[in-house]
Amino acid sequence: MYEFDSESLTPEQRAMVKLWEAHLEAEFETKDAEASCGTMTDTPYVNHVPTLTGGIGRSHLNHFYEKYFIPNMPSDLETEMISRTVGLDRIVDEFVIRCTHSVEMYWLLPGVPATGRRLEFVVVVIVSFEEGKMSEEHIHWDQASVLAQAGLIDPKNLPVSGAEAARKMLDRNAVPSNALIKRTVSDELL
């Protein structure tokens, strides 16, 4: 399990981490859209890149968080940190999300009713800061992996992985490398 050491950070960097963690707490623990948006500038921008969900501006994001993001989190959702990088005006977090697709998740699978399937995928979030507040969040994940795990695409003949991608990120020896190549190539050195 990854443990982040904030001792080597500047006071400004520690403040960014504290604000980002308050934002995450408001989203996932206290489930408070107003508190979550309170960590942001007046004109923040959030983009869940694979699905183009999120918004621009505090009132738009507050509505998105309150109606489509926070209440549509499965009760068993959990995250596991892989890494954190803190720069001068941004934080990059890499983590695994695990949950059962037990509710319609507008931000992850918009328009798809709950499938009841287990999902496990890697997420990378780039958070930018301006004048002591969060100004942007860019959230990336492998949508093909999510679609395969939700049973919405058949990965059999596609170069797509499922939960094993997250497992390999947490333990590089958990899943062999090059399995997708080996489906079509005979190479003993792979």
Describe the structure.
The protein has 190 residues and is an alpha+beta fold. The chain has one domain (11-182): Nuclear Transport Factor 2, Chain: A, CATH 3.10.450.50. It has helices at 11-28, 33-37, 58-69, 143-149, 164-170, 179-182, and strands at residues 40-48, 53-56, 78-86, 90-100, 118-130, 133-141. A six-stranded mixed sheet has the order 2-1-6-5-4-3. The longest helix has 18 residues, at 11-28. The relative contact order is 0.14. This is SnoaL-like polyketide cyclase.
CATH architecture heading: Roll
Q: Which strand-content bin applies to the residues?
A: 25-35%
Q: How many strand segments?
A: 6
The separation of the N and C termini measures 28 Å
**Most strands sheet:** 6 strands, mixed
The count of domains is: 1
Spatial order of strands in the largest sheet: 2-1-6-5-4-3
State the CATH class.
Alpha Beta
Name the helicity range.
25-40%
From the structure provided, what is the oligomeric state, counting identical versus distinct chains? single chain
Question: What is this structure's SSE topology?
Answer:
Blueprint: H1 11-28, H2 33-37, E1 40-48, E2 53-56, H3 58-69, E3 78-86, E4 90-100, E5 118-130, E6 133-141, H4 143-149, H5 164-170, H6 179-182
Protein name: SnoaL-like polyketide cyclase
Organism: Gimesia algae
Pfam families: SnoaL
